[in-house]
Amino acid sequence: MRLNAQQIKNDRELTPKEACEVLGGISQKTLIQWTRSHRHRSFLAPIRYSARRVRYLESQLCEFKRRCFSVC
Q1: What pLDDT is stored for residue 60 in this prediction?
Q2: Contact call for residues 45 and 60 (beta carbons, < 8 A)
Q3: Of 25, 6, 13, 27, whose CA–CA distance to 60 is shortest?
Q4: Dihedral sign, Cα of residue 60, residue 66, residue 69, residue 72
Q5: Which residues, in sequence order, are CB contacts of 66 under 8 Å at separation 6+?
Q6: Cα torsion for 70, 13, 10, 65, to the nearest 10°?
Q7: Cβ atoms within 10 Å of 27's Cβ, excluding its own
Q8: How many CA atoms lie within 13 A of 47 on its CB side?
Q9: How far is the C-alpha of 27 from the C-alpha of 32, rounded, in Å?
Q10: Three-state secondary-structure class, residue 11
Q11: Tens place of pLDDT for every residue, the chain, 72 residues?
């Protein structure tokens, strides 16, 4: 899923903790595992500002949920 600059600008950036809540209360460890190895990991691609500052786009998380959980 390719996003253009306008979509990214209007999209909410979520912390890993917030992303876990959006995905149904999973642990941050599970989020990291899914980010690395899940078949739909392209939708969980984090935005890395630094090694410690990582954000996830809300629209990508909803698309991941739609494809995997049929919810959102």
Answers
A1: 92
A2: yes
A3: 13
A4: positive
A5: 72
A6: 0
A7: 9
A8: 17
A9: 9
A10: coil
A11: 555 555 556 789 999 999 999 999 999 999 999 999 888 888 888 999 998 899 999 999 998 988 887 655
Spatial distance between the Cα atoms of 3 and 6, rounded to a whole number of angstroms: 8
Q: What is the maximal distance between C-alpha atoms in the chain?
A: 32
59 and 3 Cβ atoms separated by less than 8 Å = yes
Q: Which residue has the tokens 């899914």?
A: 34
By the 10 Å C-beta count (0-12 exposed, 13-18 middle, 19+ buried), 32 is classed as middle
- Pairing verdict, β 47-48 and 13-14: unpaired
Dump the DSSP string for 16-49. Answer: HHHHHHHTTS--HHHHHHHHHH-TTGGGG--EES
What is the residue type of 52? R
